[in-house]
C-alpha cells in the first residue's frame, strides 16, 4: 500500500480544470491517482509530484467501460479508500449536430456521461459502504442552456448537473457528499479541441482554470451541493433559469455558430 496520506482520484487531469484540481489536491497533502486519455498525463503527474506526495498516472480511454475499469483496478491495487473523487473528464464538440461525425458525437456522450457515471457508480459504492468520501463533478453552466451549435455537449452537461443533484439527494443521510462545479467558458484547450476557435465564445475572454478549480475544491470541502464560478456566470445561470428555452437557444446560437467570432 502506497503512502499514508489521503487519496484523491482525478480524471481529465492532464490539462485545464482537471490539472488545476489535481495540483490543489497535491498541495493540500493528498496522494493522487490521475487519469486522462492522452500521454500528457505523465508530464502532468511529474508536476504534481513536486508537492511531495505519491502520484500514480494512467493513460486510459475514459469513454469506454474497459478504460474506466483499468482506472478502478489501479485504485483497488493502491489498497486505500478514495477520500476524494473528482469526475472531471469531458469532451466538447462544436458545429451543427447534423454536420458532426457521429463517432465524435458518441465519444462526447460516452466521455461526459457513460464513463463519468460508471466511475462514480464504482467508487461511490465503496464510499457509501464505509460512509465517507467526497465526490466533485465538473458540470457546466452550459447545462442550463439549449446549446445551438454545441447541442450534444450542452445536453451532456445538463445530464451531469441534474445527475449530481439527484445523487446528492440519494446520499443525504450518509457522510458522502456530492458537489457539482459549474464553470462558464474557461481558458483551457476545450474550444480548440471542439473546433470552436472561429466562434464568439471561442474568441471571448475566459475564466482562469486555477480560479475555477479553487472554487470547486473549496465548495467540495464545505460539502456544498453546487457552485458556479465567477460572478458573470452566476448572473448568466440565474437568468437562464427564468428565460424560455427558445430564447436561450437563440442566444447560444450567436455565441457558438461557426464564423460568429470576429475575423
From TrEMBL:
<protein>
    <submittedName>
        <fullName>SDR family NAD(P)-dependent oxidoreductase</fullName>
    </submittedName>
</protein>
<dbReference type="InterPro" id="IPR036291">
    <property type="entry name" value="NAD(P)-bd_dom_sf"/>
</dbReference>
<dbReference type="InterPro" id="IPR057326">
    <property type="entry name" value="KR_dom"/>
</dbReference>
<dbReference type="InterPro" id="IPR002347">
    <property type="entry name" value="SDR_fam"/>
</dbReference>
<keyword id="KW-0560">Oxidoreductase</keyword>
<feature type="domain" description="Ketoreductase">
    <location>
        <begin position="6"/>
        <end position="188"/>
    </location>
</feature>
<dbReference type="Pfam" id="PF00106">
    <property type="entry name" value="adh_short"/>
</dbReference>
<dbReference type="InterPro" id="IPR020904">
    <property type="entry name" value="Sc_DH/Rdtase_CS"/>
</dbReference>
<comment type="similarity">
    <text>Belongs to the short-chain dehydrogenases/reductases (SDR) family.</text>
</comment>
Amino acid at each position: 500500500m502506497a503512502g499514508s496520506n489521503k487519496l484523491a482520484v482525478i480524471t481529465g487531469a492532464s490539462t485545464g480544470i482537471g490539472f488545476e484540481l489535481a495540483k490543489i489536491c497535491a498541495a493540500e497533502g493528498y496522494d493522487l491517482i490521475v487519469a486522462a486519455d492522452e500521454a500528457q498525463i505523465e508530464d502532468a503527474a511529474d508536476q504534481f509530484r513536486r508537492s511531495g506526495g505519491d502520484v500514480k498516472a494512467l493513460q486510459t480511454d475514459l469513454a469506454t467501460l474497459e478504460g474506466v475499469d483499468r482506472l478502478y483496478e489501479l485504485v483497488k491495487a493502491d489498497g486505500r479508500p478514495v477520500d476524494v473523487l473528482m469526475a472531471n473528464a469531458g469532451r466538447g464538440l462544436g458545429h451543427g449536430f447534423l454536420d458532426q461525425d457521429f463517432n465524435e458525437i458518441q465519444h462526447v456522450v460516452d466521455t461526459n456521461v457513460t464513463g463519468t457515471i460508471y466511475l462514480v457508480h464504482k467508487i461511490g459504492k465503496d464510499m457509501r459502504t464505509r460512509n465517507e468520501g467526497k465526490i466533485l463533478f465538473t458540470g457546466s453552466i452550459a447545462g442550463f442552456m439549449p446549446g445551438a451549435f454545441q447541442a450534444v455537449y450542452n445536453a451532456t452537461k445538463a445530464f451531469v448537473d441534474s445527475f449530481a443533484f439527484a445523487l446528492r439527494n440519494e446520499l443525504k443521510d450518509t457522510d458522502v457528499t456530492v458537489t457539482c462545479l459549474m464553470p462558464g467558458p474557461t481558458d483551457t484547450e476545450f474550444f480548440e479541441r471542439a473546433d470552436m476557435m472561429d466562434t464568439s465564445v471561442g474568441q471571448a475572454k475566459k475564466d482562469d482554470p486555477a480560479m475555477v478549480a479553487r472554487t470547486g475544491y473549496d465548495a467540495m470541502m464545505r460539502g456544498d451541493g453546487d457552485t458556479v464560478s465567477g460572478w458573470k456566470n452566476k448572473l448568466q445561470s440565474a437568468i437562464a433559469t427564468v428565460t424560455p428555452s427558445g430564447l436561450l437557444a437563440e442566444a447560444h446560437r450567436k455565441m457558438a455558430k461557426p464564423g460568429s467570432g470576429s475575423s
